[in-house]
Task: structure prediction
Amino acid sequence: MIDVTLKTFESEVVAASLQTPVLVDFWAPWCGPCKALSPVLEKLEAEYAGRFKLVKINSDEEQQIAAAFGIRSIPTCILVKGGQPVDGFMGAVPEGQLRQFLDKHVPSAGALQAEAGRDEADALLDAGDTDAALAHLKAALAADPGNDDARFDYARLLIVTGALDEAQAVLAEPLAREPKALRFLALAAWLDAIAFAQTDPRGQWAPAQFDDLIAQNKRDFAARYNKARVLTAAGEWTQAMDELLEIVMRDKAWNEEAARKLYVAILELLTPPPGKPAAAPGQSAGGIELTGKAASTQDPRVELVSAYRRKLSMALH
Result:
């Protein structure tokens, strides 16, 4: 618990809430209910161990802040997340009710453990220790099975390292949901392309064998599509999208829009996650991001993805 003034409000509340929910307790020295509530809040702050941050604001001394929040009686507590107030309560409410309020808004212990595991995995990938990164992501997902970021990172890294059966198992749950998230569909499409390349006789063809068929018939969409799948499995993303675009331009609906769907999946695989810059070409298998937050913010794939999105848009209209 810390005391906040107008001078420190921006850093201790607004900026801090971008990382951790901040519970702002408006109080005054003369307020009896405030004195009853304060030790309960401090107890919960210690018990929740970093899941939220508690700050106190003397409403008599910091009237400008109290007025900005529309405080009319004390104690009043306001929860700030992402720089904005999201909920609050008035009065010295019971501890059980406080727990319900906090549990509604603050991350669970498992969620915090999962995020810490993802951060550690990022650092390990930056250091080149893929096996340890996999272990941390597996533990992160076990700690918080509902953490889709951890699930996506884990499944993607499993695919990159060739653990395809494990990746399929990790993807089973999100692929059973409705609606299905695009990023998990993209991983499933990648897995499907790899399976085709590994198990179908055509998966062993050289590009020239597909090209011979296409030269004989420009509308041999099956040949183009299978070539694109082989290219996708090999991480030849732009060449795969070029083949798929040829199908889309000639017949958008072919094979239940299979070409468009795989094209979109590749774009999704190449799009860096928000806040996690991707690696430069050559730093990861097939161009898929493996490095963590220490990677350069200059991502050469941003322009590539944008250009190929425009190409698809033009082909569809």
